[in-house]
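Hi R.,

Here are the chain sequences for the assembly we discussed:
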Amino acid sequence: MLKVRDLVVAYGGIEALKGISIDVPEGQIVTLIGANGAGKSTLLRTIMGLEKPRSGSVEYNEENLKGLNSQHIVTRGITLVPEGRRVFPNLTVLENLRIGAYLRKDEDGILKDIQRIYELFPRLEERNWQMAGTLSGGEQQMLALGRALMCRPKLIMMDEPSLGLAPLVIKEIFNIIRRINESGTTVLLVEQNANMALKVAHHAYVLETGRIKMEGSGRELLENEEIKEAYLGKKKK
Amino acid sequence: MELFQAIANMTAASFAQHMVNGISLGSLYALIAIGYTMVYGILLMINFAHADIVMMACYFAFFGITAFHIPWYLTFIGTIIATALLGVTIERSAYRPLRDAPKNSVLISAIGASFLLENLANYIFSGRPMNFPEIPFLSSIITVGSIKIQAICLFIPVVTVICLCILLHIVNHTKTGMAMRAVSKDYEIARVMGVNIDNIISITFAIGSALAAVGAIMWGIRYPGITPYLGVMPGLKCFIAAVVGGIGNIKGAVIGGFILGMGEILIVAFFPQFSGYRDAFAFIVLILILFYKPTGLLGEKTTEKV
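And here is the predicted structure of the full complex:
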């Protein structure tokens, strides 16, 4: 579905991605794990059109996304749940969901989808008319997920959805991610919480300072000694 | 003490007169201040050319009526449209190419656009003050008891309230307004949602300039001497009004406009000996507000949740 080939992205003279290739097959959850500064967010931002690559290509269903703006990329069915949630604090919960459906014209479908998201996150419905800025971190993350779903994405990219959340809330978020995937949406997940991410992922990549260091199925990497030590906080036996 | 004496000396009639003057000046400030605050809200820049957009609108209306003999009501509609286009054109040519440049560059470009408009007007229209044409009925003087009021003074607040209602409806209850609010907080994510940022910015400039045109037309009827620099002082005061109200906040700009307009008139009314300082009033208010509430009356503190 999504093919990234030899992608190089630089900020000024510093290369954040030094030639990265990944594949995201349709219907799967693919995760990218790695430490701070490994280039995870940069990869997602580049796919979304927020950064311009220096070289390499991003292909989505055989179409080259290079040179397209975010507002065009979203029409292809790709969306991003950004790092730090970034809900619109001055818009109500309902408006945040509605702006997720900004390009859609089917009012009936939009209403139905809002209802569906409220079923997924009942807490958002209670806060329907509240400004998103007044929500708790966990609620904001749910809203950011709901907002992204409102454009009926085929591929949803999530940048550290567990960041700064309580363990119980993280569990809930990951359950939702699984459910989103089961309903047919492909997921590209970037996480520092390697343990949770590898458990839900079909396939995983390990990113280290701009390069892919390792790849494999989620389970393979969970059991890999090196990964255990570097990312899962377990000592080598 | 002096103040009480001044109030005591004032008859109810002259007080009413001053109130009418204050409200109409406040309304005009409010209409112009909205343009500053909306552009700041979205681009985080001060559109210095806004004051000169007001001036250009006065000339559009002036020439429409005097040179082209278009009926005044059609001229006014045409002026509003032309001014909106002018605002959009300035944004496209002077600000859009600098979208990714540092904020200071845009600010300098805005000052440049302002000077360009002033000097262009000076060159084309000459610096001699021209007399804004009299509009039947609106320019006439109505006498109620011992108060004499120019009819336009009664229309200004009404027109302002209507404009404000339409504006608040657009901003708060339409899809475009929702996108404007979203862009003002986070244009990158708004773009990810599929919002065309450039369109939204153009619409913002169009609306701000159209309101400035409405203000300018009424300004011209009320204060008929128009010159290429007529926008400078009101522009400065309206910018202050936007800051006093909390820049980026539309209701704040309106409140700020009224505070400055009313204050200016009442100072002259109560302390005629200070009337030479009427322009200083706005700046005193600015200093006080920056001292005691730097975010402005309705300005929000920016807090971030981690």
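The radius of gyration of chain A is 18 Å. Residues 27 and 182 of chain A are 8 Å apart (CA to CA).

Let me know if anything looks off.

Best,
T.
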